[in-house]
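Methyltransferase type 11: structure tokens wanted.
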Amino acid sequence: MTPTLVRHHRHGPNTASSPATDAGARARDWAEIQERMLVPLYEAAYERLEVGPATRLLGLGCGSGLALLIAASRGAHVTGVEADPGRVALARERLRADGARTGGSAGGSPGEDTRLYEGESAAVCDDGPRAYNLVTAFEPLGCAAGDSEELATALESAIPLAERGSEVVLAGWGPPERCATSSVLRVASRLTETLRATGGGRGWRPALRDDLEDVASRAGLKPDGSGRVACPFGYADMDSAVRGLLSTGLFDAAARATDPGQVEKELTEALHPHVRRDGTVWMSNVFRYLIARTP
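Answer:
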């Protein structure tokens, strides 16, 4: 299965690189360190929806393609949309390298090409109406003020590409008291208070109970089930933990409001309570997913 990369002009600030790291290095940190933390979420959703050879999946915010790869390994035909060009490039490499064993049809024969689009919404896709029967948005809500509005807009562009009654999966952070990483992410919120006050940025916010349902409602989707999944964040050492968390982009505004060195210093301090005796860093988290259907 050979992925096709389709480039489109991008708008908006969402993919701006952190001053603390080179954009290419950060994309690779995401792919090699951070993205795997959500594998239990991907697998739980795919198992519940019986993703397989009959699935034509559109992944919004597909990152560096790990969720697409897992779906393809189940036989699904997959398409991804991602705004970060570095992550798109890595997704292309990852899916191409694994193509020999991720055929899109039953029996292991090659399936349809994987398609990867660089852009901020499904509007960049040219695959035609009703091309998909599953839409996923695995980037967790409940991270930054305004993320709900952005996802609702992205979903509105994706709905015309999905069959009527298709399943849509939305993901979000669980309650802050059940997510050890929340205490670390509060560093970003505290450091961006001054920037937000002047309208120059946005920081982390705790997840709200109805985040996913509110987005589904705005996009005209009908909720049809939900679940919770344990997704612990585990890192080999402090350096990996810092690099992984910085790769999420959640600390970009903090770096602009202060300086990259200050962000890394305070992030390291916030991570110290989660360091184990062997030097690994471990934080237990719970994530939610919502299954909804297109009109």
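Residues 4-179+205-235+284-293 form a domain with the Rossmann fold fold (CATH 3.40.50.150). The chain has eleven helices and ten strands.

Cheers.
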